[in-house]
Design goal:
- This protein has 273 residues and is of the alpha+beta class.
- The protein is 25% helix and 25% strand.
- An 8-stranded mixed beta sheet has the order 5-1-2-7-10-9-8-6.
- α3 packs across α5.
């Protein structure tokens, strides 16, 4: 069943098969440290308020409206009712238009992931049939849905007992990699490649979410905890390495020298083991 507070509710449709579904963001920013803007003298929070740019007077709640500028200080005002009157069918329905082989959509077009689940017991069977059929054929579905008042192309990928919906970037948002990855006529050093391959095998690990932890987040939480305990955080100055002449050492090193040292260190540790 869908979670209590989904981001979107509607219907999943394939030909004559329709079922109620709910969509929830697959990622979250809620665990991130967030700050409020305060008045430093009083410790009170600021209050944001709409102010009329001409009269300077605050705008009353309910008086806000969307406006399309057609000239300087000349707007066409659109109410919520106006906007609702032009809503597309895709506001509430994900109608799968076509299927493409799984893996045929390049990674760069994948923008935002959502979890799609059946939204009631009656629709679970139809939802499972669509998901399992896509899984068996190794395909993903292509459709459209309105997200944030904007119609977006989406990809539906079967995964486990649910479906992952990826909002896709528009074609004109993607820069062709061929314009940047022009390559080089010079072939890489064979011994260097072999040395790197050895190092890769030595450091190969199974994926873990711990590999993408946020050290800044952890430091902020520690700083906040220290503040709660009324302890002043200690500040450490970064030391600067100098040579015998008192000149600052360069951080720029020759890649092959660094490679040789790294390989030698790996081999030495292997012999010691």
């Amino acid at each position: 069943m869908a979670p209590r507070h989904p981001y979107w509710r509607g219907y999943l449709k394939l030909s004559l098969v329709t079922c109620p579904v709910a969509m929830t963001p697959a990622t979250s920013q809620s665990e991130k440290v967030r700050f409020h803007t305060l008045n430093k003298d009083t410790g009170n929070r600021f209050v944001s308020q709409y102010v009329d740019s001409i009269t300077g007077k605050p705008v009353k709640d309910g008086n806000e409206a969307k406006g399309y500028e057609r000239g300087e200080n000349d707007y066409v005002i659109l109410t919520d009712q106006d906007l609702e009157s032009v809503e597309l069918e895709t506001v509430r329905t994900i109608d799968i238009e076509k299927f493409v082989p799984r893996g045929s959509i390049e990674w760069i077009y994948l923008e935002t992931p959502f979890y799609l689940t059946a939204n009631d017991k009656i629709g679970e069977q139809a939802f499972a049939v669509i998901r399992q059929a896509m899984e068996a054929e190794d395909v993903v579905g292509i459709s459209r849905v309105v997200l944030g008042r904007r119609e977006r192309a989406v990809m539906l990928e079967p995964r486990g007992e649910g479906i992952v919906v990826w909002a896709l970037r528009f074609g004109d948002e993607v820069r062709p990699e061929s314009e940047y990855f022009t390559g080089s006529d010079k072939k890489p050093d064979a011994k260097g490649v072999q040395a790197i391959e050895t190092m890769i095998k030595k450091r190969l690990k199974d994926w873990s979410p711990k590999m993408v932890s946020d050290p800044i987040q952890e430091s902020l939480l520690k700083l906040i905890d220290d503040k709660k305990k009324a302890k002043k955080p200690t500040k450490t100055k970064a030391s600067r390495s100098t040579n015998n002449n008192g000149e600052e050492k360069s951080n720029v090193v020759n890649i092959m020298d660094a490679l040789k040292k790294s390989v030698a260190k790996e081999l030495k540790s292997r012999k010691a083991g």
